[in-house]
Amino acid sequence: MPIFGVGTDIVEVERMARAIKSRWADRLLWRIFTSGEIAACMGPYTAQRYAARFAAKEAVVKALGIGFTIGISAGMVEIVGGERTRPRIRLHDKALEFVQSANITEVHVSMTHTPLYAGAFAIAECR
User: Fold this and answer.
1) How far is 24 from 15, CA to CA, in rounded Å?
2) Distance CA 120, CA 1 (A)
3) Does the model's pTM come out above 0.90?
C-alpha cells in the first residue's frame, strides 16, 4: 500500500505529570482522552502512559496531514492497546470521516516512553 503520510511526536513526561495533577486535570483528561484510554493509563507509570498516548495522537494527525484542525480533536483519535499488545488506532467522528474521504486504509502507530520522555511514530497508508 502507498504511504499517505508519516508523523512523529515527543512529550516531556514531567509536563504531563504536572498537567494530570493540576486543578484542571479531570477536565483536561476527559477532553483529550477516551474513557478506555483513561482506564489504560491508571496504575504504575501513569504520566508516562498519558504522555505516550498524547504523543501517539499527535503523530497520527501529523501522518494524516491535518493536525488538530478541521474540527478534529484529540478525543477523536483513540489509542487502543499498547501495554502488552500492539497499539491500534480507533478514530471517531470527524477524524473517521476524514480518513474515509481521503481513502486512508490503515494507520499504524508505535509508542515508547522513559521516565523523562514519551514518543510516538505513525504511518498512514492509502489505496
Assistant:
1) 14
2) 21
3) yes
pLDDT at residue 37 in the model: 96
- CA-to-CA separations, 7 to 69, 107, 123, 124, in angstroms, rounded: 15, 11, 7, 9
Q: Are 12 and 117 in contact (CB under 8 A)?
A: yes
- In the three-class reduction of DSSP (H, G, I as helix; E, B as strand; rest coil), residue 5 is classed as strand
Q: Are 110 and 6 in contact (CB under 8 A)?
A: no
Q: Which amino acid is located at 62 in the chain?
A: K
Instruction: Give me the amino acid identity at 125.
Output: E
Place of cell 477516551: 34
Return the closest-CA partner of residue 125 out of 104, 111, 100, 102.
104
The total of other beta-carbon atoms located within 10 Å of residue 67's CB is 11
